[in-house]
Design brief:
heterodimer, A: alpha+beta, PH-domain like, 3 domains, 7-stranded antiparallel sheet, 5-stranded mixed sheet, 41% helix, 15% strand, globular, B: alpha+beta, 2 domains, 22 helices, PH-like_dom_sf (chain A), protein phosphatase binding (chain A), cytoplasm (chain A), endoplasmic reticulum (chain A), Myotubularin-related protein 9 (chain A)
Chain lengths: 550, 614
């Protein structure tokens, strides 16, 4: 298929672009296979707006006489309006955008056509390989092994080819365990806590069904992570009720009788459509500038967004607490183990492991705990807050995770190497990107799409020093401690950088931020200078003395 | 003194506590825990003491403070608890001004320092800065002896064309004699903010002198014929007042006025709103939705928005239309003070400096008779007179500092400290209800002024991001008053609940850094001078060496020659430490603590957050 077929009107002149808090600009609108480009011809400040079609969440058209208006709502939550003279042109453009923003074939997406304009110093596809992770692990413990059981994705379609499992469990046993777990997602290592050797594992629900099926290998596998005489905790991200109901569909939870060394805690985290609805309501509330104080608060409440944040953070804190304070190993799962499970395991690592609070470490965490762990990005991020289609797979699971990270970042502003912009960037690229990183739903699909060969990795671009400097937190000072965030409602805040980003002028806040950075920079310069001067003085003193001794 | 007293964590579910000793002094309640940490509570700060039913561990005593600190003690013996309770009740309720802390507080200043301290803020100087008196405005001596209005200051500025009979006549037509006077004069626009109380218009009464007074105000503004009259009350309240012979201006009787209601609620609504807010924020195990709906039901942020919206309306009239504005409410000392002072703050960057803010409070709040004593319950009095009007003003300012981080010379700590001392009765400034009362109390001789004390600690209150060029003199701030800009002020209402705050404070860090930068600049100068001197010296030494072979050992020998690179100023450490970063300080911690005790199968927890099967 040629994109040209979809583009009925490639270009329109005298189009007026409206954005909140900016004056309207007149210019030319062009449609290409992957972009909507608007450029103003004004000599004094020529402006260009490039918008990926895949970033477009929904489009509305209106007509007043022969003047057509298109309202474009983006997945990054921005809303722009284009006034296009000529009814036919406007209709053509609208239908072209609609078609181009809803291509169903992944291979037609921009990442397959994107040619980077920068020099690749490090191939991001090879920056975070499981082997490297395992090497780090084996330097501290020899109780684990790298299993290639899933080499051809034959055992578990949503797992990566290699996984880390207890050394004492052989591949044969793993196969049996896989049969006992939803989607074959058997328990694998998620995190090893160096401080006390405790671990966090993740999996999907056990398929106990109504008749309480058991699997000796499964019991043996997770027991292998326990120290003699010690107990472990299973954190089930569903309510007890939901977990019990799951038995009717063949799922279930670990029975006390079969797992006597484990205590199960149910920490309910909401799923799919509930989260998606929550996002839609929240964004609606944020975009409505007219309402009074009470309506704003009640809408914020009705969205439940901050409640979800609190639930997720609480579950993650609990997992971290079991490991660090109780000295116990933890197994986390929900139903499929691809959503709330990953929120909990990845956030617990941010709390526990200082490495995850660095840029590199956080990228590695996203790769391990989200991409390789099989979070279905393509399904979850297909639509954002403005979608009106009621597909049931969309959910802002990853955005909620980023929001939780932002909440912790707010509470520990000096403990993270990255800044808020870094999180916002990840949010944007998860929903629409020129890079292949977030395409596909798991490693299996990614390998079939040959993303490694055909597309560019986000990390190849981010990890160049020009880009990195934008994402660095000037206040960062490595903090080796565990950081316990507060989950009191008074401590949780709306993530304004994402949700109010397009709804209020941020000039004053940005300027203040610049000023803050310049104070920090100046401080570093002064410190360096004082040190240099002191050294110079000291050298002079030594010289004097040498002369003296001569 | 009572030993073995437990101080409970306000939000902890498992009743985590600190054990220590409780002391009662003449002015303070002091608790020293086993690790020698001290908690001081001024008796004047105590808003309420409550004795809860006896428990197995002792007798609980809950103390609520006016600065929103809440402490929960458990006293082992009921008798002791009862004694403490009674003493606190007596100590926190003062009957006479002379018994307040300010009259015994002695900061070791001599008399001339005390006098100088009181002279720090000079309102005559301030009116001069605004540009009055001038061709249109003059100082009136009508109230020199508080004869016309007891709650106004002696010095009042009025239009030149307003003769004494007009003033007297107008004052008789205004509630409590509070006739229209100048609050702020905008030099560039030649427009004025004036303030007064409601007219005694009833259903039909009118007063020619009052009408003349308003005409004089609009005539004093050459750039605009009409003026605005803002009644800051909701229309319904104002109408209800007519039945009592009070009310609002009839537009037909006054020439060239534009009348506007802005709908700020009265002191009683505000008091119960804050009460609701505190109930919600003090709930243990609060869920997000209960918090948000509680915040909404309290109406607190709605009131803050109403106050700021009113100020924005006022500012637009002056800055955009160059029209003068007369602001009033009922008595003209609560809402009127809020709106006038916030309006001036938005119009004039001087009030965004530390000194300027002090002046603003002295002018619009203290001198114009905001009833600090009644509103803050300094003396044991009518609880219906208490209202957080001034707190709302500070919160509105805080909201502005959040929107314009570079426009204010002062920081949040400054606002919090002022709030602290409005209630502390440690300094004389806020004692009493009006200037006349303050003079009678001889506050300037017997007590000290807060302002020099705050200026002495200036460093703590400076906003490191402040940019004096952010808004040149007399350019206005235009705040965005869309609802989502108004946030719960955690640092005010949970100031003492440390576990809720960010564990690392960016603002403190930046503040220390910019302080440190100044020090480093000094160091560099000093080092450069030393090096220069040494260069000169070593040249001299060389010269000497050439001249004579034997010479005395230079001084430098005595200093250690080796140089180690060292961290320069270790101030940052204190700020960076992660205070209270442990699970025990957070809500979720108790969950594990509960089930680690190896307990029966199903434990249902207090909040119903988690139901655990073990």
């Amino acid at each position: 298929m040629e994109f040209a077929e979809l583009i009925k009107t490639p270009r329109a002149d005298n189009v007026v672009l409206h954005r909140p808090f900016y004056p309207a600009v007149e210019g030319t609108l062009c449609l290409t296979g992957h972009h909507l480009i608007f450029s103003s011809r004004r000599q004094d400040n020529a402006e260009e707006l490039w918008l990926l079609h895949s970033n477009i969440d929904s489009i509305e058209k209106r007509f007043v006489g022969s003047l057509g208006t298109i309202i474009i709502k983006c997945k990054d939550l921005r809303i722009i309006q284009l006034d296009i003279p000529g009814m036919e042109e406007c209709l053509n453009i609208a239908s072209s955008i609609e078609a181009l923003s809803t291509l169903d074939s992944v291979t037609l997406m921009y990442p397959f056509f994107y040619r980077p304009m920068f020099e690749i110093i490090e191939d991001g596809w090879r920056s975070f390989l499981p082997d490297q992770e395992f090497e780090l692990l084996s330097s501290v413990t020899d109780e684990w092994r790298l299993s290639c059981i899933n080499k051809e994705f034959s055992v578990c379609p949503s797992y990566p080819p290699v996984v880390i499992v207890p050394k004492s469990i052989d591949d044969e046993a793993l196969r049996k365990v896989a049969m006992f777990r939803h989607g074959s997602r058997f328990p694998v290592l998620s995190y090893y806590h160096k401080k006390n050797g405790m671990v966090m594992m993740r999996s999907s629900q056990p398929l106990t069904g109504t008749n309480g099926r058991r699997c000796k290998e499964d019991e043996k596998l997770i027991n292998a992570t326990l120290r003699p005489g010690k107990r472990g905790y299973i954190i089930d991200t569903r309510s007890l009720n939901v977990a019990q109901q799951a038995r009717a569909k063949g799922g279930g939870f670990e029975q006390e009788a079969h797992y006597p060394q484990w205590r199960r805690i149910h920490k309910c985290i909401e799923r799919f459509n509930i989260l998606q609805e929550s996002l839609i309501k929240l964004v609606e509330a944020c975009n409505d500038q007219s309402h009074n104080m009470d309506r704003w608060l009640s809408k914020l409440e009705a969205s439940n967004w901050l409640t979800h944040i609190k639930e997720i953070l609480t579950a993650a804190c609990l997992a971290a607490q079991c490991i660090d304070r109780e000295g116990a190993s933890v197994l986390v799962h929900g139903t499929e183990g691809t959503d709330s499970t990953l929120q909990v395991t990845s956030l617990a690592q941010i709390i526990l492991d200082p490495r995850c609070r660095t840029i590199r470490g956080f990228e590695s965490l996203v790769v391990r705990e989200w991409l390789q762990a099989g979070h279905p990005f393509q399904q979850r991020c297909a639509q954002s807050a403005y979608s009106n289609s009621k597909q049931k797979w969309e959910a802002p699971v990853f955005l909620l995770f980023l929001d939780c990270v932002w909440q912790i970042l707010r509470q520990f502003p000096c403990s993270f190497e990255f800044n808020e912009q870094f999180l916002i960037m990840l949010f944007e690229h998860a929903y629409a990107s020129q890079f292949g990183t977030f395409l596909g739903n798991n490693e299996n699909e990614r390998s079939k799409l040959k993303l490694l060969q055909k597309t560019m990795s986000l990390w190849s671009w981010v990890n160049r020093s020009e880009e990195l400097s934008k994402f660095q937190n000037p206040l960062f000072e490595a903090n080796s401690l565990v950081i316990w965030p507060s989950v009191a409602p008074q401590s949780l805040q709306l993530w304004e950088g994402v949700f109010l980003r397009w709804n209020r002028p941020s000039k004053f806040l940005d300027e203040a931020h610049e000023e803050m950075i310049s104070i920090i920079k100046y401080n570093k310069e002064l410190q360096a200078k004082v040190n240099a001067l002191r050294r110079q003085l000291a050298e002079m003193e030594t010289d004097d003395r040498m002369q003296e001794n001569l | 003194q009572v030993e073995q007293v437990k101080l409970l964590d306000r939000f902890s579910a498992s009743n985590k506590s600190l054990t220590g000793t409780l002391y009662l002094t003449a002015t303070h309640l002091l608790f020293i825990d086993s690790s020698q940490r001290e908690t001081w509570i001024l008796h004047h700060h105590i808003a309420a003491v409550e004795k809860l039913p006896l428990t197995t561990s002792g007798c609980p005593l809950v103390i609520q403070c006016k600065n929103f600190r809440i402490v929960h003690f458990v006293v082992p013996r009921e008798r002791d608890c009862h004694d403490i309770y009674n003493s606190l009740l007596q100590l926190s309720r003062t009957a006479k001004y002379e018994e307040l802390y300010a009259f015994s507080y002695n900061p070791k200043q001599n008399e001339s320092e005390q006098v100088k301290g009181w002279q720090l803020i000079d309102l005559a100087e301030e009116y001069k800065r605004m540009g009055v008196p001038n061709a249109n405005w003059q100082l009136s001596d009508a109230n020199r002896d508080y004869k016309i209005c007891e709650t106004y200051p002696r010095e009042l500025y009025v239009p030149r064309t307003a003769s004494k009979p007009i003033i007297v006549g107008s004052s008789k037509f205004r509630s409590k004699g509070r006739f229209p006077v100048l609050s702020y004069y905008h030099k560039n626009k030649e427009a004025a903010i004036c303030r007064c109380s409601q007219p005694l218009s009833g259903f039909s009464a009118r007063c020619l002198e009052d009408e003349h007074m308003l005409q004089a105000i609009s005539k004093a503004n050459p750039s605009n014929r009409y003026m605005y009259v803002m009644d800051t009350r909701p229309k319904l309240n104002a109408m209800a007042n007519r039945a009592a012979g009070k009310g609002y201006e009839n537009e037909d009787n006054y020439s060239n006025i534009r009348f506007q209601f802005v709908g700020i609620e009265n002191i009683h609504v505000m008091r119960s709103s804050l009460q609701k807010l505190l109930e919600v924020s003090g709930t243990k195990g609060l869920s997000v939705n209960d918090f948000l709906s509680g915040l909404e039901n309290s109406g607190w942020l709605r009131h803050i928005k109403a106050v700021l919206d009113a100020a924005v309306f006022l500012v637009k009239a002056i800055a955009v239309e160059s029209a003068s504005v007369l602001v009033h409410c009922s008595d003209g000392w609560d809402r009127t003070s809020q709106v006038c002072s916030l309006g001036a703050l938005l119009l004039d960057s001087y009030y965004r400096t530390i000194k300027g803010f002090m002046v603003l409070i002295e002018k619009d709040w203290i001198s114009f008779g905001h009833k600090f004593s009644d509103r803050c319950c300094q003396l044991d009095g009518d609880p219906k007179e208490i209202s957080p009007v001034f707190t709302q003003f500070l919160e509105s300012v805080w909201n502005l500092t959040e929107q314009f981080p570079q426009a204010f010379e002062y920081n949040e700590a400054f606002l919090l400290q002022i709030h602290e001392h409005v209630h502390s009765c440690q300094f004389g400034n806020f004692l009493g209800n009006c200037q006349k009362e303050r003079e009678e109390l001889k506050l300037k001789e017997k007590t000290y002024s807060l302002w020099p004390f705050l200026l002495g600690e200036r460093k703590k209150y400076q906003n490191p991001l402040y940019n004096p060029d952010f808004s040149p003199e007399l350019t206005l701030l235009e705040p965005n008053t869309v609802s989502f800009n108004f946030k719960f002020w955690r640092n005010m209402y949970h100031q003492f609940d440390r576990s809720m705050h960010p564990r690392q404070s960016v603002s403190n860090l930046i503040m220390n850094m910019s302080e440190q930068n100044k020090q480093l600049e000094e160091d560099i100068k000093e080092l450069e001078a030393k090096i220069k001197r040494r260069n000169g010296q070593s040249d001299a030494v060389l010269l000497k060496e050439n001249q004579q072979s034997a010479h005395p050992a230079p001084m430098a020998l005595k200093t250690p020659p080796c140089f180690k690179e060292q961290p320069l100023i270790p101030v940052n450490d204190a700020v960076r430490t992660i205070e209270g970063s442990n699970t025990a300080d957070n809500r979720y911690s108790e969950l594990v603590a509960e089930f680690s005790k190896a307990e029966p199968a199903v434990v249902s927890l207090e909040y119903g957050v988690a139901r655990m099967t073990c």
